[in-house]
């Protein structure tokens, strides 16, 4: 039975959220009221080069920062390396068309073959398992050093900036932090990979790629897709609140990235690159 009756309490004005009727049961008591949920909707992505438009398909995302999302995704796929590869970006309500310059390296057959995406799946369409660990990215900084306290500060700092999560409990977050643990930029999305793409896309548009003296902090687990995206952006260190996957650890070790997981105020586990973590 659909829930359609609820009270008229005002909704908080937070982008990427909508109000939906709900029946709340708490301590045996029921109440009907609207509740905030994160928006999930489809975004159509296309690339145009030399007069030909290539449809890359759909991704499910939380609307907002769509340009950053698509630019970050294309960077992680190796289509663009800098803003010099962009001629223009055409924005629609639920569609983004990226116009590439002639200098952009774009193999439409390869990219369209491996771009089946959902909000929870980053590169499910990759056509070769052997290509997953062996990627090309910028040289990672060996001078970056962070302490346990710095890592802890970055995690707590990220949490204070998750406004959509505070309201809905339904989004992931990625943030940039300096060696001192201070968060400088954050993006949220219903998909963890989208949040990372938005963060990296914003950095690329600001001409801050590669990122060489910062760590990227993620609010959930560390998957190999997130490690891959972080490596291509140049982050020497990645911090996750949750657990890493085996492929994430293997990829971080192969490329010399520092991977810290289960990070909080009291403890953390370093799975690779311990030379960049100092013990207080």
What's the helix and strand layout?
Layout: E1 17-26, E2 29-38, E3 41-49, E4 52-61, H1 66-76, E5 86-91, E6 95-100, H2 108-113, E7 146-147, H3 148-160, H4 163-168, E8 172-177, E9 183-189, H5 192-205, E10 215-218, H6 224-233, E11 237-240, H7 246-255, E12 258-261, E13 269-272, E14 277-278
Parallel strand pairs: 3-6, 7-14, 10-11, 11-12
Antiparallel strand pairs: 1-2, 3-4, 5-6, 8-9, 8-10, 12-13
Helix pairs in contact: 1-5, 5-6, 6-7
Task: Report what the structure shows.
With 280 residues, this protein is α/β, with parallel strands linked by helices. It has three domains: 1-38, no CATH class; 41-126, Ubiquitin-like (UB roll), CATH 3.10.20; 146-278, 3-Layer(aba) Sandwich (Cytidine Deaminase, domain 2), CATH 3.40.140.10. The protein has helices at residues 66-76, 108-113, 148-160, 163-168, 192-205, 224-233, 246-255; strands at residues 17-26, 29-38, 41-49, 52-61, 86-91, 95-100, 146-147, 172-177, 183-189, 215-218, 237-240, 258-261, 269-272, 277-278. The strands form four sheets. It has a six-stranded mixed β-sheet with strand order 9-8-10-11-12-13. Strands 4-3-6-5 form a four-stranded mixed β-sheet. Strands 1-2 form a two-stranded antiparallel ribbon. The chain is flat, with a radius of gyration of 20 Å. Mean pLDDT is 89; it is low at 7-11 and 122-128.
């Amino acid at each position: 039975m659909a829930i359609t009756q609820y009270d008229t309490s005002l909704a908080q004005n937070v982008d990427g959220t909508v109000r939906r009727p709900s029946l709340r049961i708490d301590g045996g008591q029921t109440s009907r009221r609207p509740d905030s949920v994160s928006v999930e909707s489809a975004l159509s992505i296309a690339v145009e080069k030399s007069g030909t438009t290539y449809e890359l398909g759909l991704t499910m995302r939380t609307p907002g920062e769509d340009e950053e999302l698509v630019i970050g995704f294309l960077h992680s796929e190796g289509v663009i390396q800098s803003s010099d590869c962009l001629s223009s970006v055409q924005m629609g309500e639920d569609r983004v068309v990226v116009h590439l310059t002639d200098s952009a390296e774009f193999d439409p057959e390869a990219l369209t073959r491996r771009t089946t995406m959902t909000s929870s799946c980053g590169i499910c369409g990759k056509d070769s398992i052997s290509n997953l660990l062996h990627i090309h990215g910028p040289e990672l900084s060996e001078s970056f050093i962070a302490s346990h306290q710095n890592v802890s500060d970055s995690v707590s700092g990220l949490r204070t900036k998750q406004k959509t999560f505070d309201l809905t409990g339904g989004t992931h977050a990625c943030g940039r932090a300096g060696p001192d643990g201070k968060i400088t930029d954050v993006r949220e999305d219903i998909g963890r990979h989208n949040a990372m793409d938005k963060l990296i896309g914003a950095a690329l548009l600001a001409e801050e790629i590669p990122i060489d003296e910062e760590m990227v902090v993620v609010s959930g687990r560390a998957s190999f897709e997130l490690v891959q995206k972080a490596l291509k952006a140049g982050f020497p260190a990645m911090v996750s609140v949750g657990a890493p996957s085996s492929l994430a650890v293997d990829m971080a070790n192969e490329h010399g990235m520092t991977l810290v997981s289960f990070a909080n105020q009291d403890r953390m586990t370093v799975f690779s690159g311990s030379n960049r973590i100092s013990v207080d």
